[in-house]
Every structure is written in structure tokens, then in C-alpha cells.
């Protein structure tokens, strides 16, 4: 029998789950998902069942759904988008002497699955005894190729452990697989039950292709499989296809001690424009290339790709092996979400599950792209190119809502607004400044002129135009932005939200700077000097409400005058509050779902003095309940900046284990990619004190007592650098590229070939703020 | 042929439509609706077709419908209610020599319909020539009895005008009549198509009964008919019933110059508790009583009832016959909406159409009950008893939303919240203060101790408790009410809305006063002296935001800092704005849908100085677009108070003709009962300057140049008085009851048997404010 209790094992470069726990299946399927940002496979078992939530996703491939309203309103989106579980190619069913291999039956004698962060594969090792006592070992390894984005592959081996066995293996492509519908929602069911309409099916030898399209969104896709079989006995092979199923069947009598090894190659493609024959050809070409490359070479390319990634992106932690693992797990999944999206969005859940309907939000620009910009800059640029490709839709949306410039959607797959609740959807216009911020940050970090020409200037200009129209000067000349919603979704439709206003200010200034830098582009976009002057003026006179009496900024105008939420009277079971209190009550009280002003202090660090940051952090931290996974990382970063290192560590732990320990009880529907990215932000922005929103990279490293050493790498303007932090000092090393100017705790220095070691100034201790009653950061047992 | 162009004719005591205009049918059906507040019949033709929107309504009889949301939220109501078109008993079909009488065919030689405000009947006189040229005169008269609330009756006469004619008359009860579904909404259709399930059908002689129940709300109803037939020839009569149809058929050969007269008696009943046999018995008893009373006596009782009503409620206008008619039309429909509701709501559309799903809103308490309180006090008391009967639901709703006391629904038929858009639904908590205001106003006007004991104190206490919990003291001790929505639905979720805060203040004080007056009731309700002290304190320290710079109150905190709506750039076709702009844009600008602060100045007159009222009125009038029919009357009242008499007259005209001239293009779905009530408010509150929110009735009469004389009557504490206003003076007369103290333009006087004539002080003229570009008050051609 299995000799370990089910759960994750700690290891620096892999995530291993040892033992069988069917209850945990839903979340392990998300955690063990493989993806390259274009194609995603949830970590389901090859046998197809037992399964929590089957999932095979193609980035950008969605079905439409009707968005209904009890009371209609002008400008409400009527059609939403929802990610589709496409044709499943992961399935390899096994029959042992006529008994289906199903881990719910028989006995599982060994079982282990390993997600390897360096090989980029998911491995499995299972020893199973059938209900009648026949024992087999099953090993599998699968990958979704980072280098060949249309290709995935699975190596599957079966070994009889107690003498000869009759084995039958069925390798499937299965379309319209039944999926559980969240909340039993009948409207969602209407969109998601049998979403694929069969267009074409063909098979020969050990290969097959199925082509389908979606009923309403009319997107076309094709999936293909081909196989290599190694078995000592002479197998009996057949293949057949139906509309929604292609099946290769292999029957073999395998002698004890021998094994059957099947290598399955998968190719996927989709398009809104290309025909079914073209898609079929595309998939068959991908398969042919994958077969030609072969399993071993695919593995090698995968490892090379990851070696490069880690050389730029690795974070090392001494003193907490679990955290070391969690941080690499996080980086691995951020890479998987963004690596090869190529002009598609990076959804909030990546391609790990159907949560949030597969939509992308502001999370991408604010949490994920800052990480990718410093680790896989190309991927960050591609994600911003996706935004740019939706600019016409955003301009149309702005016109529809009576605004200037562009209004990007709050949530979307295809660029159209998909939010069905406008007060924290459409009204959360900060998404536009967030996109501009990510654009400016990317430009500063990469100096990618092609991107600037193709996309960057236009993104900055069109978002700046929105702010110029949205704000207005009051009678004292202050530039106000009224009636918008900031990041904190427990407030809505507020005036002069500091986060929004400061981000808009940055947006206006970056647009003005871009136009000054690129007068050619400015001319093309019809930007006149008067318009730029208005942007500068709006930015300079931006309202930033401050409560003199309390000595803190106001999250938005009047916020500090609201009644404080009664945290002491709120039971732990009442969280997340939005499931137990009406918005009516939440909006009118001082209670914060997720960092808002605190996030402004991170993203616009120069808009606050150190004293203000300290007072603001303490004031707002005591109100922030972290009902969103986007909060802990920001709180960690600012806690570190204002000197609460132990609290920063606690928030870091919460961010790092959000998915691994399923802190929000919804990992089954997919990982929180932004929170995973936030884990990196905790290390680099938090304990590294890195700020990259200007022309110089700034560091202010400081280690919490709980860690012995923290080292991270990053890319910046063609360099690669490493920063290694201990309690006393930080060592900066240039791994690649020309020397550059950096700042360490306010002191400028030049980093050239020789590493530079600088002392870390002592911290004068300050008592940490009280966190809301019952909402202490997560602590591991 | 008809010798008048189709349209209304002016007449002081009736509304006559002369000529045939099938295009106008939808709205005339609403305008000619008959109702006693319990049973309502739309003014459709007896023949059943042509028809705009068939409608027979029983107050409180509804079907449930699902309220869907694109994104769900805590506390959102999931089940809504919608008024049902019940079994139609109005139908009397006629066949003339085998040709169906249908005004779309043949020729209409004469056609006239008259709603008589004194007889309380709808009369019709039609001369019709069939396609083959046979000519008949059809006269009908119908009533819904004010005295016998379950009974309606129709007298129907056919007279051959060109020799003998074979006539067939079919008198029907028809259930599940097809109705057009607004906007083709499939969810509404699901609730409203075939809403009635047949339970029972029986017939004998010329009578029949059908009993049904609703599918989801499980309410039961029965409708019965019986007939008296007068015809010289020997008729051939038969009756038959099916599940959804009962039909009495009369065939007779009527000689020229003779006539066939059918008197149809209808009885209706519904219940959520009584069984089908009990309902059948109830309906048959009502029918028997109606038949026993007989047509002539029913007519007489109807006239007596109305004579009494007009003796208390009549308004006379000299100098504008159209307005005279419009005001009586308005009063007649207000009476019809409220007369015999008897512990049911008064819906926004009365029982004249299916608009707003048949829901009641705050309109009832704020606009309709002030009129009924002074004209049919019993009906006002009954409507408040309905609110009281829903108190348990309101308490439960308050608990659900984390509030104290009671939270009444924004819209409802049965007392449960039916609003599917919370920012201007649930968040418009002022409805609770409006109910308290109507309660206090009713108590002051009637001194109805039984009501006070049964309902009044409890209504005041439970609503006061809501405010005590909803508000909070800020650090300077000011009592704030944050994040609520006032009457103006182009603003939402604002802080310290002046209307809400002042109405809450009144609510808290009235509750405290009621508890002081009735310690027995206070004790029963568990009100401790401490609680009362908190109410008084909250009221005394209530926040009432004021902009010192502009010298005006703020509609809500910060409102005057918003950008002003660009009225000049708004096309006339862009109104109502809510159909052409998103809430996002409306909420963040200075633009007002309907009187808000101006309504506060009317309902809480002592909270403002005369100067403040004048400045506030001018400031806010220039922002108010009147996209709601609830606005013009309030603006008229305040315009009169601050001395803009000509503007007041214009708003009065707009209010008076809102339905008759279909100014909001939706009269087809029912009349705007609150706006009709507002017509009375214009006369009495506006030009009469009457204020009844204290212990003394206050008047400040002043006539606009456009009128020669205005006289109105009202009831107050057992008295009936008449006030007659001319340009120079006002005469006060006591028509019934003991002498009383009144105030005339700030001067107290005693009104006893002798009429008192007092001069009207001269008005110093002041320029009227500019109304929003393109939104001048309605003017008649």
C-alpha cells in the first residue's frame, strides 16, 4: 500500500503529490495543469475518470452567452464570452484483463505525480491492483511544448507486475465531454453543454483528426493525434472516428517484466477566419513536425527553454524550503500562462481552469506583466499587443458610453466588455490606466522601439484621451475624476479615488512624454500640442484627497468619514464578505476588499512621502480583509517598504500558498495567476524593494528574520542582473549586458562586471498595525 | 360619417373621445379604465377586438417571475412579481347578420366614448355599418362599483337602424387571453403566457363561473357573470363552459326601431388561502347581490359615492377649461386607484395597465397618499395598513441586509423586494422615511387612534430603527447617512442626500413623538428611553450638506462639485437620458432626473429659510430634466412658493396633461397615478400654498396670471373646508365640523362658521431660472 499520507512533498525544483486523494482531485487538476499560454491541459488522469473538471483550453477560443438583467440599462453588454473545454486529447484509457483501470476501484499501491519546473513536464507513477488482483505499473509523462506551441505529447507506459497480462489501450480525442456547470446556471449550461458542432473527422493508421466549430461565436478548431507504439508482443491496432470521438485501440498480450509504451502526440489549432480544411492541414502539419522532432527532442527543447527562463527569472530562498518551492511553482505557472499567448490575453486563471469564464482582467497588466516584463519580456510585449489589437473595440465602447479615447473592457476574452455588473465593472475605469502603466513599464524595461511604434504610443494616447474627457476642473482648478471604482471592490462609484487619479496622472504624463519622444506617431494619431498641454495640466492639477486631521490620504474623497466596519462582530464564516453582506452595506463602510491606496503607493511610489506611506499603510491595512487574492502581495510589498518586515513575511506566505493550500477554496476552477505573480512581487518588490516605474531601477532590499537569504534575477534593458540579499548586505551582480546605474536604499551606484556588495541600513522598529479582527494572514501549521 | 376629428373634447365633468382612431387605442384604453382599487377593467371595446392591450386586474393578484442577473450578488431578489391579466368579463361580442362587429371593418358612422366623473361610468355610443351595409347603433355603459367592490356591470344595447336584423350576442368570460409581452422579454413571457390554470367551470341559465389559479404564486381566483336580457323578440339563449371560456349566446331577430338590451353583471374574487369552492361561493354571492341591487341602483350608489367624494375633493378652476377637466380627470383616477384597495397596495399605474409589472413604489406614500389623506382619508389609512401588513417581510429584509428595524421594498406587489437593480432600488432607502412621513401626515390629518394603535406607532418605530442603525456619528458628532440613493435616479449611492436625511430626521422625531404619546405601544415594541434619546440625537445632529460658496444646499455631499451636464450638446431625441446614456455617465454629472432637493423643500419646509429655498430652487431647477413624471408637480409647488408663478403654471400644465397628452409615450401601459395626484398637489400645495406636515394647516395662496379663480376643498381632522383663491384674496369657508386654526401667508386665524376673506400679499418679482436647454415645460398647442 501507499506509504505516505496524501499531499504535497517539499522539494526545491518540483511539486510532488504522493498518495491518492480523490477529494483533492479538483484542485490538483488545476495545480498540475500544463500550458504554454496557447494550449492548456488540466492535470486530469489519462484514464479520463475519475475526474473533477475535465479541461483542455485554447487561448481565445470561447463561446458566446447571453447576459441577462432583471432590469436593463443603457450600455449593458448583452453578450458575454465563456471559455470552452475543447476536444480532449489527454485521454488514454487502459483495460487490464478486461477491467477498466479506474482508481476509484481496485487498490492503488503506489501513486505519485510530479510537476517538474525544470523539465516542464508532469510525471506520474502509479501501481494499481485491479479488483481481481492483477497488478500493473503505469508511468506517464506529459508536456505542452513551449517551443512548439501547437504541440503536446504524452508518454504512457504500462508494465504488468504479476505475470503476463492482456492489455487494451484506447487513446482518444473526445469532443463535447460533459463538464459540470458552476452553480447549475441554466444560461451558462445553454452555452456550455455540447458547445462544439462537428465539421470533419478522419483517421488512418494510428492518427486521427477532428474538426469542430462553436455554435454562436462561430470559431473553428481542429485537434489531431498520432502515436508511436513500443511493445514486445504483436499488438492488434485499430482506429475509428465519429463526429465527437476519434479512438485508436491497441490490444496486446504483454509478458510480465515487459512493458507497453505509447507516445501520443497532439496538435491543436483554431481560427475565426481560416476554413476547416486549412485548420486540418495546420494540425496535421503540427503533428508531423512533432513526430519528426520526437519525444526525446521535445523533452530536450522544453528543458532548454526552461533553463533559459530560470537563468533570468529564478528566485532562491534560504531558510524556508516550502517557500522556495512555492515561489518556483508560482513562477512556473506565470510562465505557463504567458509564454506563448502571442497576441491573446492572459486570462486570470491562465489556461488552468474555467474560473471567471476564462476572462482576462486588469490583473494581467498590474500583477502579471510586471513580472513577465522582468523575466520573459517578449511575453509581456505580446500580451500588450493583444490589448492593442482590441483598440478599435475599446474606442467603440468609449463612444457608446459617451467618452473620449478608448475604454478597455473590465473582463473579456475577445476585447468586448463582458462585465454584467457595471459598478465594479465598467466603472472600474482604472483598467485603462493599468494598461498604460504596463505599457510604460514595458517600454522603460525593454526600450522596444518596434512595440512603441506599433502599439505603445497609441495605447498611451488613447487611454490618456479617456482621462482628459473623464475628468473636469472644478472651480478652484483642481482636476477631478468623479464616480469611478478603484481596485477595492468593497467601494464603488466614488470620487477621486487616489489609485485611479494617480494612475491617470501617470497615464497622462506618459502619453505626453511618448508624444514628445515620437512626434511622428503623435502626428499620425492627430495629437495637437494643445491636447498634450491639457494632459499635462490635468496631471499637474489632479485631485489627491488627503485627510489632514487623520494625516492620511483618503482612498477616495470622503472615505475616511464612513463608519468603520464592525470587524469584531463579523464571524470568520462571514468571509468573503460579498457572499454574506449586500454591496449596499459594504460600499458605505470603511472596509476594503483588496489593496487600493496601498497599491497606489506601490505603483506610484513618488506621489507619497515616506511618512505618508507609513501612516497610510497602517490606517488602511487595519481595514483590508483580503477577500481578493490580489491583495496579500501588495500588502507584503508595502509592509516591507514601511518597515513591518515580519508582517510582510506573513503576507508573502499568504500570497505564496494561496493556490497550493487553496486559501480561497476555488482552486478547482483554476489557479490565481495574478496572485502567483504576486509571489514574485513580494520577493522582488517587497524584500528587494525594487521599483521600476522610472528610468532607473531602484532597490531597497531588506530581509525578514524568517529568511536567511533571498536571491533573485531579472532582465532590464538588455541586461540580466542578480540581487542577493542577506540580513546585513545585498550583493548586486551583472550576469549579462552593459554596466548600468542602480539605486540601493537611496544611494546611486554603477553595476559593472564586478559584483557590488552594499550594506543594508538598520531599520528603526515600529509596531505593526492591527489587522482586521479574525483576518490575520494565513499561517502554515 | 363621423363629424368630428378624433380626440378628446373639453367638458368640465367628463372626458369624451369623439371619433374612431385605432392608433390611439392603446392610450385610450388606459385613460378610459375603470377601477375601484380592487378590480380594474381597461377601457377596451366590448367586442374584444380591436384591442391594444387587454387588461382585467385584481389588486394583489400576481404571478411570480425569475429575476436573472448576469452577475449575482448577495441579497439580490431572485423572484419578482408581475400583475396578471385575469379572466376577462368585459367581452360582449356582436354578430350582425352573421358578420362580426369589428370596427376595423365596415364603417363607423358615429363613435363616442365618455368617462363621466360624476356617474363613475364609461359610456359608449357607436353607429356602425357592416361591410355589407347593415347599420346598428350600439350603446354601452359600464361601471366598476365603488360600493360593491367585487362587482362590475355592463349595460349593452343594440339597435338595428335599417330594418330588422338577425343579431347574435356572445357574452364571455375569457381566461388566458393573449397579451403582448413588453419588449418581447422571454422571461416575462414565461411568467405571463397562459398564467392561469383552470380549476373549475360551471354554468346554468345565463350565468357562469370560472375558477383558476396561478402556476407559481399559487393564488386562486374566480370570476362569474350573470345577465338580464331585454328584447322584444323571443331570443334563443344558450350557455357553455370550457376550462378557459364561459359563453352565453343570445340569438334574436330584432325588428328595426326595437333594441336588444343585455345587462351583464360580473363578480370577482381571489385569495391566497381560501379554497376554490369558497371562492366560487364568494363570487356567486357577489353576483347574486349585484343582481338583487340591480343596474339602476348600482348606478345610483355609484353617483352617491362620487357626490360625496366631490363634495370633499373638488377643485374648480376658472380661466382654463381644459385644465379644469384635466384636474377632475386626475382626481377621478386617483380615487379609482385607491378607493377600495383595502389592505392592498396602490400600484404606480393603479389598475389601469401592466406598466412597472403592477408594482407599488414610494410614489404612493409621497404623492398619492397626501391627496387621499385630504380627500378620502379612509383610503389613505387602508393603503398604510397594507404597508403595515408587510412589516414582517420588511423586518426580515432588514435582517437579510444587516440592518435594524424594517426595510420596505423599493417595488412590490406582495411586500417582497422586487427590484432587480439595487443602486436605485434597495439603496433608495428613503422609501422607509416616505412611509413614515405618510403615516405621520395621516395621523395628523385624521387623529385616527385605532390606526395609530394598530399600525401607526409600529410603522414609525420600525422605520426609525432603520435610520438609527443606518446612520453613524462622525468624529465631530454629525450624524451621517452614507451610500444611499435619493429620489433623483440620475444620482446613486451618494452620501448625506439632503432629502433622505431630512426625511429620516422627520421619521426619527415622529417616532419619538409617537412613543411619548403612546407609552403603552412603545413598551409593547420594546422601545427604551435610551433608544428614543438616540433617535432625537440623530435627528438633531443630522448632516445637511450646504455649499457656502454657492449659497445652496448640496443634493448630496459633493454634488455641486460634479461637472455640469452638457445640456446644450444633448439632442432632444436623447431624452429620456437613461435610454441614451449609461448610468456611469449620468451619476457622475450634475443632472437631475426628478425633483430631489426640491422635493425635500416641499416635504420638510421648515428645514430651509425662504432665501435658501429661492436659491436652491433656481440652482436645481436648471439641472432637472424631468425624465420622470414625478417631477413637474413638485417643481410647480416650489416654483409657486419661491415666486415663479408663471413657471409654476407651466409645470402644473405639464403635470396635468402628462397622461391625457401622453407626454412620456407610455400611457398605453397605464396611467401615472402619482403624477395625476401631483396635479392636485400643484393646485393645493402650489397655488394654495398648503402645508400639512405640522399640527396646523398652513396656506399661502397665490394665483398665476393664467387663472382667474381656483377653489379647492379638503378634509382635515373631521372638518371639510373650502379655499377659494382669486388674484387679490382668498376666501376660507368651513363646510363641516368645528372651527379650526389656520395660517394664511404666515398669519394665524380662526375659521368658524363665517367664511374668512384675506388679502394676498403682493409678490416682488424675480427672474425665473433657466430650465435645461431643450427641456422647457410642456405647452399645449
TrEMBL record, chains A, B:
Keyword Ligase carried by entry: no
Glycoside hydrolase family 65 C-terminal domain sequence ranges: 690-751
InterPro entries named among the record's database cross-references: 6-hairpin_glycosidase_sf, 6hp_glycosidase-like_sf, Gal_mutarotase_sf_dom, GH65_N, Glyco_hydro_65_C, Glyco_hydro_65_M, Glyco_hydro_65_N, Malt_Pase/Glycosyl_Hdrlase
GO function terms (MF aspect): hydrolase activity
Signal peptide boundaries: none
The entry's keywords: Glycosidase, Hydrolase
Keyword Hydrolase in annotation: yes
Database matches in SUPFAM superfamilies: Galactose mutarotase-like, Six-hairpin glycosidases
Coiled coil start-end: none
Start and end residues of each stretch annotated as Disordered: 761-781
Residue intervals passing through the bilayer: none
UniProt xrefs under Pfam families: Glyco_hydro_65C, Glyco_hydro_65m, Glyco_hydro_65N
Domain Glycoside hydrolase family 65 central catalytic intervals: 328-680
Family: Belongs to the glycosyl hydrolase 65 family.
Name this protein carries in UniProt: Glycoside hydrolase family 65 protein
Species annotation: Nocardia acididurans
Taxonomic classification: Bacteria, Bacillati, Actinomycetota, Actinomycetes, Mycobacteriales
Amino acid at each position: 500500500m501507499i506509504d505516505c499520507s496524501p499531499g504535497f512533498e517539499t522539494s526545491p525544483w518540483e511539486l510532488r503529490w504522493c498518495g491518492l486523494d480523490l477529494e483533492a482531485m479538483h484542485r490538483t487538476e488545476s495545480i498540475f495543469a500544463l500550458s504554454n499560454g496557447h494550449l492548456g491541459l488540466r492535470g486530469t488522469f489519462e484514464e479520463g475518470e475519475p475526474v473533477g473538471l475535465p479541461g483542455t483550453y485554447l487561448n481565445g477560443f470561447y463561446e458566446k452567452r447571453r447576459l441577462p438583467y432583471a432590469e436593463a440599462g443603457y450600455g449593458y453588454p448583452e453578450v458575454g464570452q465563456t471559455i470552452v473545454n475543447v476536444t480532449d486529447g489527454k485521454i488514454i484509457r487502459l483495460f487490464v484483463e478486461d477491467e477498466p483501470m479506474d482508481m476509484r476501484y481496485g487498490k492503488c499501491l503506489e501513486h505519485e505525480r510530479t510537476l517538474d519546473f525544470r523539465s516542464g513536464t508532469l510525471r506520474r507513477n502509479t501501481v494499481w491492483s485491479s479488483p481481481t488482483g492483477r497488478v500493473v505499473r503505469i508511468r506517464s509523462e506529459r508536456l505542452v511544448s513551449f517551443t512548439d506551441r501547437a504541440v503536446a505529447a504524452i508518454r504512457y507506459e504500462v508494465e504488468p507486475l504479476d505475470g503476463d497480462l492482456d492489455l487494451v489501450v484506447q487513446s482518444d480525442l473526445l469532443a463535447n465531454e460533459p463538464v459540470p456547470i458552476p452553480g447549475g446556471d441554466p444560461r451558462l449550461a445553454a452555452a456550455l453543454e455540447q458547445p462544439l458542432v462537428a465539421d470533419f473527422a478522419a483517421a488512418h493508421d494510428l492518427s486521427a483528426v477532428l474538426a469542430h466549430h462553436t455554435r454562436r461565436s462561430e470559431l473553428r478548431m481542429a485537434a489531431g493525434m498520432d502515436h508511436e507504439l513500443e511493445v514486445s508482443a504483436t499488438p492488434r491496432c485499430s482506429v475509428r472516428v465519429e463526429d465527437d470521438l476519434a479512438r485508436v485501440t491497441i490490444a496486446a498480450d504483454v509478458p510480465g517484466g515487459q512493458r507497453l509504451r505509447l507516445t501520443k502526440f497532439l496538435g491543436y489549432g483554431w481560427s475565426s477566419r481560416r476554413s476547416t480544411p486549412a485548420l486540418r492541414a495546420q494540425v496535421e502539419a503540427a503533428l508531423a513536425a512533432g513526430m519528426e522532432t520526437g519525444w526525446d527532442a521535445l523533452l530536450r527543447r522544453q528543458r532548454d527553454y526552461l533553463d533559459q527562463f530560470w537563468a533570468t527569472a529564478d528566485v532562491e530562498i534560504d531558510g524556508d524550503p516550502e517557500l522556495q518551492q512555492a515561489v518556483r511553482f508560482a513562477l512556473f505557472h506565470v510562465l505557463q500562462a504567458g509564454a506563448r499567448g502571442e497576441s491573446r490575453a492572459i486570462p486570470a486563471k491562465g489556461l488552468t481552469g474555467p474560473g471567471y469564464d476564462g476572462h482576462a482582467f486588469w490583473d494581467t497588466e498590474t500583477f502579471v506583466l510586471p513580472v513577465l516584463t522582468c523575466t520573459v519580456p517578449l511575453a509581456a510585449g505580446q500580451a500588450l499587443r493583444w490589448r492593442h489589437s482590441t483598440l478599435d473595440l475599446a474606442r467603440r465602447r468609449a463612444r457608446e458610453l459617451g467618452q473620449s479615447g478608448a475604454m478597455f473592457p473590465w473582463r473579456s476574452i475577445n476585447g468586448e466588455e463582458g462585465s454584467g455588473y457595471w459598478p465594479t465593472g465598467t466603472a472600474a475605469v482604472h483598467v485603462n490606466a493599468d494598461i498604460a502603466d504596463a505599457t510604460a513599464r514595458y517600454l522603460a524595461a525593454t526600450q522596444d522601439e518596434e512595440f512603441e511604434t506599433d502599439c505603445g504610443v497609441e495605447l498611451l494616447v488613447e487611454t490618456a484621451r479617456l482621462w482628459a474627457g473623464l475628468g473636469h476642473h472644478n472651480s478652484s482648478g483642481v482636476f477631478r475624476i468623479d464616480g469611478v471604482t478603484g481596485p477595492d471592490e468593497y467601494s464603488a462609484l466614488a470620487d477621486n479615488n487616489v489609485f485611479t487619479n494617480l494612475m491617470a496622472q501617470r497615464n497622462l504624463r506618459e502619453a505626453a512624454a511618448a508624444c514628445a519622444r515620437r512626434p511622428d506617431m503623435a502626428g499620425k494619431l492627430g495629437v495637437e500640442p494643445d491636447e498634450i498641454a491639457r494632459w499635462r495640466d490635468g496631471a499637474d492639477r489632479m485631485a489627491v484627497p488627503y485627510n489632514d486631521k487623520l494625516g492620511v490620504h483618503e482612498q477616495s474623497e470622503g472615505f475616511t468619514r464612513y463608519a468603520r466596519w464592525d470587524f469584531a462582530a463579523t464571524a470568520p464564516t462571514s468571509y468573503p464578505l460579498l457572499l454574506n453582506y449586500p454591496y449596499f452595506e459594504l460600499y458605505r463602510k470603511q472596509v476594503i476588499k483588496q489593496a487600493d491606496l496601498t497599491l497606489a503607493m506601490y505603483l506610484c511610489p513618488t506621489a507619497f512621502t515616506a511618512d505618508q506611506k507609513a501612516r497610510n499603510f497602517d490606517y488602511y491595512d487595519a481595514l483590508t480583509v483580503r477577500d481578493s487574492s490580489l491583495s496579500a502581495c501588495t500588502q507584503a510589498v508595502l509592509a516591507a517598504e514601511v518597515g513591518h518586515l515580519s508582517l510582510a513575511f506573513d503576507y508573502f506566505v499568504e500570497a505564496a500558498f494561496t493556490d497550493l493550500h487553496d486559501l480561497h477554496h476555488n482552486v478547482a476552477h483554476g489557479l490565481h495567476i495574478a496572485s502567483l505573480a504576486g509571489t514574485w512581487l513580494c520577493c522582488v518588490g517587497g524584500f528587494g524593494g525594487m521599483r521600476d516605474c522610472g528610468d532607473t531601477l531602484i532597490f531597497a532590499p531588506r530581509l525578514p528574520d524568517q529568511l536567511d537569504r533571498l536571491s533573485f534575477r531579472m532582465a532590464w534593458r538588455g541586461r540580466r542582473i542578480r540581487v542577493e540579499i542577506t540580513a546585513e548586505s545585498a550583493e548586486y551582480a551583472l550576469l549579462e549586458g552593459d554596466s548600468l546605474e542602480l539605486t540601493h536604499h537611496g544611494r546611486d551606484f554603477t553595476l559593472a562586471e564586478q559584483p557590488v556588495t552594499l550594506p543594508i541600513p538598520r531599520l528603526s522598529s515600529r509596531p505593526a498595525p492591527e489587522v482586521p479582527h479574525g483576518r490575520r494572514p494565513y499561517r502554515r501549521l
